[in-house]
Amino acid sequence: MESPFLSILALLAFVLLIAVTGGVGYLTLSEWRDRRLREAEKREQRRTSPKKR
Fold first, then answer.
1. Looking at residue 49, what is its pLDDT?
2. What's the number of CA atoms in the CB half-sphere (13 Å) around residue 37?
3. pTM of the full structure
4. What SS3 class is residue 1?
5. 5, 15, 31, 53: least buried by Cβ within 10 Å?
6. Which residue from 45, 27, 47, 26 is spatially nearest to 37, judged by alpha carbons?
7. What would you measure as the largest C-alpha separation in the chain, in angstroms?
């Protein structure tokens, strides 16, 4: 028969795995979004800046 301690420990490990996976997904998504915004700002600056001769 399985002990309740092991069941709780397995459930806790599963919850922590989901939390860590969600955190990594969130950080990846936010980095992708920030990179797109930085690239759009660079393109906008190049388009509006006066050209040097």
1. 77
2. 6
3. 0.69
4. coil
5. 53
6. 45
7. 82
Q: What percent of the chain has pLDDT over 70?
A: 92
The pLDDT value recorded for residue 51 is: 67
Residue 26 confidence (pLDDT) above 80: yes
Within its chain, how far is the Cα of 3 from the centroid? Answer: 37
Continuous H helices in 1-53 = 4-48
The 3 state secondary structure assigned to 6-17 is: HHHHHHHHHHHH
Q: Is 39 helix (H, G, I), strand (E, B) or coil?
A: helix
- Between vectors from CA 19 to CA 8 and to CA 24, what angle results, nearest 5°? 150
Cα 5 to Cα 11, 18, 19, 29, 52: the distances in Å are 10, 20, 21, 36, 71
